[in-house]
Amino acid sequence: MSFIEFIKSRIFFKNLAYIVIVILIISWIATLMLGFYSHHGEAIAVPDLRGLSAKDAAIRADEGNLLVEVVDSFFLSERRIGTVIEQNPKPGFKVKRDRVIFLTINSRYPERVKMPDLIGTTLRQATAIIETYGFKAGKLSYIPDISNTVLVQKFKGKIISPGQLIEKGSQIDLVIGKGRKNQKRNNEEKEDTLLQ
Predict the structure, then answer these.
(1) CA quadruple 8, 14, 19, 22: dihedral, nearest 10
(2) Which residues of the chain does CATH 3.30.10.20 include?
(3) What is the pLDDT of residue 184?
(4) Confidence at residue 40, expressed as pLDDT on a 0 to 100 scale
(5) Distance of alpha carbon 84 from alpha carbon 104, whole angstroms
(6) What's the rounded Cα separation, in Å, for the pair 125 and 104?
(7) Do residues 153 and 119 lie in contact, with contact meaning Cβ atoms separated by under 8 Å?
(8) Tens of pLDDT, residues 16-70
(9) What is the CATH number of domain 44-106?
């Protein structure tokens, strides 16, 4: 029997039909298994975990067949310490079972940053630097000096050196030189305007 005769024979078509049926059955089983494994069509709404402790958030997520993982923390003074302040995915978002919800927790301690060197800068520059570092401009004092710049930087009434670690959000007090006598009034008016 030649190859062409074999292709035209009943045995070839019978074997070809068996192969197609086997491939279809394997594809159907694979599709069913994939749907079962990936929980196709199932969706769970992500619960709102904000305001809960990390432990309570894990318990609540577990009730919905979800997982949690703490990925970051930062300090907010207006929030309760150790509670969830952000989550990803957001509350109400539809996810599949066993999805990980990433949490950001309110830190127990405020972030500390190095004090910048403000000596020799103008009040305007010092105020901008203070805000850039996450501090707040505090009390201003003036002493006679020709420089008209920051002469002393203080934290809680004490002189603070550049590079010292202090809590973000702290107030920094400044001692400013008054400048020349004829500039005194103009400078005070400008400084008062900056502080408003």
Answers:
(1) 160
(2) 44-106, 112-195
(3) 47
(4) 61
(5) 6
(6) 34
(7) yes
(8) 899 999 999 999 998 888 877 665 667 888 999 999 998 999 999 998 889 999 9
(9) 3.30.10.20
